[in-house]
Design brief:
Elements (H helix, E strand, L loop, with lengths): L2 H10 L2 H4 L4 H8 L14 E2 L12 E6 L4 E6 L11 H12 L5 E3 L19 E3 H11 L2 H15 L3 H12 L20 H11 L3 H6 L4 E5 L6 E5 L11 E9 L3 E10 L4 E10 L2 H14 L1 E2 L2
Helix pairs in contact: 4-5, 4-6, 5-6
Length: about 300
């Protein structure tokens, strides 16, 4: 192309003026219609001289949901046991296979499975929806095993097989699950994979309607037994605007936690994930407050 043609093209091409480059955009410009300029969203922006949060966790991640950005992470691909965070994945399988009003009976297989005291009575029947509440709010292992047994009966497939198949479907390629409650520490995941799980779980409104409750009551289907369920999440009443969360703990996994809080003034929310923590509630609170206070959102 000679210099004359280059000058002519520069004079007539609007891309450098309005931030467009395609032939379609050029045609719109020449016909008198100017398309809006596409602007990259650079927010949130970390404030100057912001110190890195000090955590006891072996791995952690902080995620801005509105802008789809990871704001902070440590050891994000490190494989670690996740304890009862497994139950968030378990809940998606339950909702795929069972309806909320179906009764499920507590059997010897789902009675006092962790030897820490039974959550229900042997032979008691509860609705799937109430067992989900017990599993996700109180982190009941008995509820997780009762639901697993019901899913296996319906599908004819082992629950561990189904957990790992669902993890693969979600894209959790660095994760492995070995029981429905997360009791076995040979199971593992990463904070990156758990972020994928949280995003996927948002497809199930029932899960998030449950995990934002600090307490509730459930009854057996015949009305004989009533159980008051209190959340294992000790940040209820400490942090405002909790959207939902799930706790986890075993001696091998240490403290694990997923927690999302809303930022109403900024039209966003922050999600914290911590694994292998000596102080899971303090770490989660520190991480969420650090994100809230040390970024400009608009």
């Amino acid at each position: 192309m000679d210099s004359t043609n280059r000058q002519a093209q520069t004079a007539t091409t609007p891309a450098s003026l309005i931030g467009t480059s395609s032939a379609q955009d050029l045609g719109s410009y020449q016909s008198g219609y100017i398309l809006p300029v596409s602007v990259t969203n650079f927010f949130p922006i970390k404030k100057p001289n912001t110190a890195v949060p000090k955590l006891s966790a072996k791995a952690a991640l902080l995620y801005d949901t509105a802008n789809d950005k990871v704001l902070f992470s440590i050891s994000s691909q490190k494989s670690l046991p996740v304890a009862s965070l497994t139950k968030l994945l378990m809940a998606t399988i339950v909702l795929d296979q069972l309806t909320l009003n179906v009764p499920v009976t507590i059997t010897s297989r789902s009675y006092n499975v962790d030897d820490l005291g039974a959550d229900f009575n042997r032979g008691e029947a509860l609705a799937v929806g109430d067992l989900l509440k017990a599993m996700l709010i109180k982190s009941s292992n008995d509820a997780a095993y009762a639901l697993a047994q019901a899913v296996e009966t319906k599908t004819g497939k082992g629950i561990v097989e189904q957990l790992n198949a669902k993890a693969g479907l979600i894209g959790m390629y660095n994760s492995r699950f070995s029981d429905p409650a997360g009791l076995n520490d040979d199971a593992y995941s990463t904070v990156e994979d758990l972020l994928k799980l949280v995003k996927y779980s948002k497809r199930y409104s029932a899960i998030w309607q449950i995990i934002n409750q600090p307490e509730t009551d459930v009854k057996s289907v015949d009305g004989r037994f009533s159980h008051h369920i209190v959340s294992t999440n000790k940040l209820f009443g400490v942090l405002p605007n909790i959207v939902g969360g799930k706790t986890g703990y075993t001696d091998g996994a240490k403290g694990c936690m997923i927690l999302e809080i809303a930022l109403p003034a900024d039209d966003s929310s922050l999600l914290a994930i911590v694994l292998g923590s000596d102080e899971r509630f303090a770490d989660t609170k520190t991480l969420l407050e650090w994100g809230r206070d040390n970024f400009r959102w608009h």
